[in-house]
Design a protein that fits this description.
This protein is α/β, with parallel strands linked by helices. It has 17 helices and 24 strands.
């Protein structure tokens, strides 16, 4: 069965995506932002992502059996007051796909409830046969948190949900707005919150936790809308601050006591709530193995506090429901193992090498020893290797890398990328680093999706990739890491700790680079020392 999954809600478009699954096997996964070059693809249907997935398999829309949507769109239309009678499935499909299909061959459409799509993605991406599955996000059709139990037969059973007024995602959205960030900059708020943890700042009380329930510090109403919840949170945060105002710009936000306190208060509340929800989910499901999904599952600091065994997929946020919806229709079979994140655009095809050699820049065949020499001399370079990783984390196939020392290396790379100087970076290392340079975890470090306490040895080796609170969000190399994995092995052979600072290959407010052409332009614009694109290398001193 050929299934095209999409994340394409009729309201609040962001992180739109498409995924092609054939008999349960993922063939391609595309995020619209990587093709449109608009970060988070706000208000953009996944036209380019759909086209990429079909092209990757050599198919057309006429070959697709089912289009699976990671939202109950008709239900959303009713909630928005537009009514189910006004919903035209064919018009919606053509708008989402950017393709027209005669009615005689139009694929079947299956609408999968949002949290079920999240849960399906998390479970089938994991190596677990049975698991508790916890969905924590902003809001789905009407719920903000859901618990499922997944059986060895691949069935997911819904156990409990919480309404919009219990949304941790909306608390975080409101806190971003309160300090002057956008709702799509939650990662920045998490980085800022670490300064509150490190300085021992007192967090505002934003929730209370009972044995069987938790209550956030806003009036609790089951039917509260997204906008109402945000408004109520802003009132609460303003009251907690005594009417204070954020007085510094983004570059110096870590020096603004109120901004740090607000960020830390939201983060501390989320960390408490996630731990409570994980314990509750495990108890309700009767399983120790836990899959965590939803936008809140991108919170590395909170994830790092969850007891093992826990798994978070590389796409826990909304783009991942394209995969979850497709797997709901056509689930994977065979041996269970953690999914590979390298499902995006492949630079080894489509004649990219020819475009490089005719680009006018001096390209030389890749020499890994030359890359190692540059890294050991403190150079900063870009890597574009094979198929792009999916999700918001650069996992070595579209990365900027350098040695993670001295500590000033963080400031150097932040200047290169024009980022706020208080934002942290991540290390990528071989398996031997796990437990040696940072506290050991199993699956969270596969996709750079969990934080860990840096050890005393790690503080010496990776000071440029350690945050102000003594944590890091590591990536541990896997067999499919590619060039970066080989570079780590070469570092070890040279007697150097096999670990690099790893960050996304992009400029400010840009999606991660996708194609060699974009990589070349970004290499030049940022002033990187070198770039490796497939089998070629370019350096700024040639």
């Amino acid at each position: 069965m050929i299934v095209l999954g999409v994340n394409a809600p009729p309201r609040g478009w962001h992180d739109t995506s498409a995924c092609l699954v054939i008999d349960g096997l993922v063939i391609a996964f595309g995020e619209e932002e990587r093709f449109s070059r608009r970060k988070h693809a706000v208000q953009q249907p996944p036209h380019h992502a759909v086209a990429f997935c079909l092209q990757q398999a050599g198919l057309t829309i006429h070959d697709v059996d089912v289009v699976a949507v990671g939202w109950d769109v008709p239900k959303l239309m009713v909630q928005d007051g537009r009514g189910s009678r006004q919903f035209n499935e064919r018009e919606y499909l053509e708008y989402v796909l950017g393709l027209r299909s005669p009615s005689a061959v139009r694929p079947k459409v299956v609408f999968v409830p949002h949290h079920l799509a999240h849960a399906t993605c998390g479970y089938f991406a994991s190596p677990y046969q049975e698991a508790a599955v916890l969905v924590v996000d902003g809001i789905g059709e009407s719920e903000s948190v859901s618990v499922y139990v997944a059986s060895a037969e691949g069935r997911l059973k819904h156990l409990r949900s919480w309404p919009a007024a219990s949304s941790l995602g909306l608390l975080y959205d409101a806190s971003c707005k309160f300090v002057g960030l956008s709702s799509l900059e939650a990662g920045k708020l998490m980085g800022l919150a670490a300064y509150g943890r490190a300085r021992g700042v007192k967090a505002w009380k934003l929730a209370e936790f009972l044995q069987d329930e938790y209550r956030l510090a806003i009036p609790f109403e089951t039917g509260t809308s997204h906008e109402d919840v945000l408004t109520r949170w802003l009132h609460v945060l303003t009251a907690r601050s005594g009417g204070g105002e954020i007085r510094t710009n983004r570059k110096a936000m870590d020096s603004d006591e109120l901004a740090v306190q607000a960020a830390w208060s939201a983060q501390y509340c989320v960390e408490q709530a996630v731990q409570w929800l994980c314990a509750t989910g495990r108890r309700l499901a009767g399983r120790d193995e836990l899959c965590l999904v939803g936008g809140v599952a991108l919170n590395c600091a909170a994830n790092g506090l969850i007891s093992e065994p826990v798994f978070v997929p590389p796409v826990p946020h909304d783009s991942g429901v394209a995969l979850g919806a497709a797997w709901h229709v056509s689930p994977p079979t065979g041996e269970r193992k953690a999914m590979s994140p390298y499902l995006g655009l492949d630079i080894t095809s489509k004649g990219w090498s020819n475009s490089l050699t005719t680009s006018g820049v001096t390209c030389r065949p890749l020499n890994e020893e030359l890359v190692i020499e540059r890294l050991l001399s403190g150079k900063v370079g870009g890597i574009v290797d094979g198929r792009a990783e999916i999700g918001p984390r650069a996992l070595g196939h579209r990365s900027i890398v350098t040695l993670p020392r001295p500590a000033e290396r963080r400031d150097q790379v932040n200047r290169i990328k024009s980022r706020e100087p208080w934002r942290p970076f991540a290390p990528v290392g071989l398996a031997e680093c796990n437990g040696q340079l940072w506290d050991e975890r199993q699956h969270l470090f596969r996709y750079m999706i969990g934080a860990s306490i840096v050890t005393a040895k790690g503080a010496e080796v990776i000071p440029g990739a350690m945050h102000v609170d003594g944590t890091a969000r590591p990536q541990v190399a896997t067999e499919d890491l590619g060039l970066v994995g080989r570079l780590l092995v070469e570092l070890r052979r040279d007697g150097v700790h096999p670990v690099l600072l790893n960050t996304s290959f992009n400029g400010p407010d840009e999606p991660i680079v996708n194609t060699p052409t974009e990589a070349l332009a970004t290499f030049t614009r940022l002033g990187l020392d070198f770039v490796v694109i497939g089998d070629y290398m370019i350096a700024n001193d040639w």
